[in-house]
Design goal:
With 120 residues, the protein is mostly beta strands. Helices cover 0% and strands 60% of the residues. The protein has no helices and eleven strands.
Length: 120
């Protein structure tokens, strides 16, 4: 089995920074893309940022220029550096591992979520 363990969430004031980490563990042969999604109360889960195995990235328009996603393929870990945080960034942030290749097959995995709260 594969587990995604997230860390780094918390409560900060507007303008401050946080860094989220997500480590995938298990009998992993490879991971296609890794990404971060978020879900605010009463809203749908949305993509925040995504990075391919080759390092190509894409971001939600609302976080461009403020958030940076990076990845350590050797550690199966993805990071999200969040700067200039705004109250509207408040949400539960979920890590996603896309097309995780195992001996027994390929599937996607999600982390348990980490709360990010930005006060004004």
């Amino acid at each position: 089995q594969v587990q995604l363990v997230e860390s780094g969430g918390g409560l900060v004031q507007a303008g401050e920074s946080l860094r989220l980490s997500c480590a995938a563990s298990g009998s992993i042969l490879s991971i296609n893309a890794m990404g971060w999604y978020r879900q605010a109360p009463g809203k749908q889960r949305e993509l925040v940022a995504r990075i391919s195995s080759g390092g190509s990235t894409n971001y939600a328009d609302s976080v461009k220029g403020r958030f940076t996603i990076s990845r350590d393929n050797a550690k199966n870990t993805v990071y999200l550096q969040m700067n200039s945080l705004k109250p509207e960034d408040t949400a539960v942030y979920y890590c996603n591992a896309n097309r995780v290749r195992l001996v027994v097959g390929v599937r996607d995995y999600w982390g348990q979520g980490t709360q990010v709260t930005v006060s004004s």
